[in-house]
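Feature request disguised as a bug report, sorry. It would help if multi-protein outputs had a clear separator. Right now it looks like this:
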Amino acid sequence: MSVAPTALDALMLARWQFGITTVYHFILVPLTIGLSLFVAIMQTMWLRTGKEVWLKATRLFGKLFLINFALGVSTGIVQEFQFGMNWSEYSRYVGDIFGAPLAVEALLSFFLESTFIGLWIFGWGRLSKKAHTTMIWLAALGVNTSALWIIGANSFMQHPVGAVFNPATGRAELDGTSGFLAVVFNPTLWYAWLHVITTSWLLSAGLIAGVAIWWMVRTARAGAAGSTAAATEAREVWHPIARFGLLLMLISGVLTGITGHVEGVHMISEQPAKMAAAEAMCNTQSRAPFTIAAFGSECGENGEGIKHVGQVPLLASILSGNTPNFEVQGMNDLNQAHAQKYGVDKITPPVMPTFWSFRAMIAFGLISMLFAIWGLIATGKGQISTSTGLAKFGLTMIPFPLLGISFGWIFTEIGRQPFLVYPNNMADPVGNVWMLTAHGVSGAVPASQVLITMVLFTVIYAVMGIIWFLLMVRYAKEGMHTPHQVRGEDHKQELSFAY
């Protein structure tokens, strides 16, 4: 694809704009989801045990949680505006259904989380310990149910339910109360939500463990240089927090694998073309192997257009249907059966982006679990290391779950193409509700305006990303110390992000 035609293509630009803003927004979302729960757990541990370490941990990671929450809200607002601007035809067609869970999210979950986060921030020393701890649990409930409603809207696009097509208006409409309940209890919603929650735990636990390991090594080195207080801090403060994060990371990694597999098996029954592209499988096979690498974008009539490099026997069938005899449908067969029905040349998504994002998602997830195991071994039996290599290891493992999550969403969304709303039954879509991506873009917004706003949003988000990164680094480096304590000064600290 050359640059010039793309710069004049409103559809392609609208897709790029939504993709850029969404990927950045979702950097913040899983950290907010996971940290809300883990900060609540830390504060509860302090309430129950009275150990000062968990109060300090609550305050430290509570600051990082609030940074993510604030920036997440500001970047998330942009997403909803795009539905009415670049994607107004999509909103006109399915806004009656798609907007329902988003409205509930705004009216219920967002007000729940924002209200109780406010009470939590300003309630230190004003509320009783139990009441104050309850505030962060209610805020965490709001954050996690907010994710549920938003994923409910996305799940409708992946598998539309509860809708009927009204030929008089040319729109898909919510089928009354039963239709709304169908959207809420859409199996795709619950599988996706559980997977998002567990991956958010994995990322947030990695952040806690990484920061704690870095501080453990730093204070241990100060202890080795003669500071008894620093040695005590390394042993009694940072070591247990690091172990707490690593253990949560391992548990979350296992749960992520389980929920991802269950969601994947369910996905194949609804979007077989996505898995066909994820395996670069041109022709239907039973006892299908898992391909390690593939190159080429078109199958060709006999499947000779894609080169497969390295294969694990039977694994694709096992991952797809929990049995080595499961039949994985191929792209050629799916295109032949359904492409003409939907007025496109092929119903399969772009092969290489789908194929490689699927593998990147799996690879980064597995690497994250290996990091957790390695970290637990390195800190086992009370080991307090002064190795700078271990400190660098702690920081290195933080972004890997995030990369896995990002590639997972790229796989999910690219794998749905060429549909914006994927038909819930390829042969006979229930309610006749489906939509091609090309039909969802606004016809009233010229490509020049989309290009200008895409560039502006990208620049603004880049600036916000730098601010986010600097804030996260600043407060992580402060740790449980005030800035004057870190510098070794004795004068009173000026107010800095106190709550």
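(second protein starts here, but nothing in the output says so)
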Amino acid sequence: MKAMVYHGNQDLRLESVPDPSPAEGEALLKVDYCGICATDIEEYVYGPKFIAKGKMPIVTGHEVTATVVEPPTGSDGLSPGTRVALNTVLTCGTCFWCNKGDTPQCEQFTVVGFDRDGGLAEYLAWPANELIPLPDSVPSEAAALIEPSSVAHHCVQRGNIQPGETVAVVGAGTVGTLAMQIAKAQGARVFVVDVKQMSLDLASELGAEVAINAAEEDAHSVLTSLTDGRGPDVVIDAAGAPNTPADCLRYVRRGGRVVLVAIYTSTPEFDFNTIVANENTVIGTIAYGRSDVQASVDLIASGKLKTTPLITDRISLDEVIDVGFPRMLAPTKDVFRILVKP
């Protein structure tokens, strides 16, 4: 089969590799779509960061939706032709963190495209018990963004966002726009902050109460005025710029919560005395659990979470290197997600 294989820093190759051989309990899947994520780009440009050198070369790609070709013997609910979402984060289920329900902290945390072969390929093998059948109301294209939706859902749950709270999402990219919709579905009032008008326009279309262009207006003043002079209850950093953690701590109300969901490629600096004096809570969030994947499927099926407006383009596997990555790397990036149809 054809696959995009990561060999190291800025070394990605389209190669012919053997079809996967499913282990016991695994299904053979035909990849329907795989998204190109900002993390893939960061790994390509700055990595290897998340991929261990001993695991290279590896088929990359982790935002996958697929169709079952061959289920394992005795599998319940899966048959050839079943469209599925993947819980792409595998955990041991027995360690201290798994027993506490903190599965993203599992000592044996394994992710598709980073720890084992991923979805930028024609076929993929994955444990059948980590596949979630898609209802007819969820098209495969929409399901291709279930992985970032699960990241966003886990972020909102980590922030313990409650109905009636005010939430500012800084960074209206893919994860930020998904988190905005999920927080709104939970009953929060949601605002977004970005410096790209294209992103702000889409966030407004998808339900942001106010979209603030921080390049043109003082976001702190606007957010303060929208929240009776206090600041939002929760601020989510989905931007990951060097200045955004400090910005989030400036925007949030005293006693409020800041949730960091971005991956930082530099080392941000801010005055920790701000956290101390204002009794703020800063929360990190990474990846997701199986329940977040199921919740994302349910939200898309209900119409409360819209993912297809975030699909900017669809390309073939042959176009990943010459079209997909250059568009994602462009300084004037004009895309949210590019889907690859192997």
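Even a blank line would do. Unrelated, but nice: The first strand starts at residue 2 and ends at 8.
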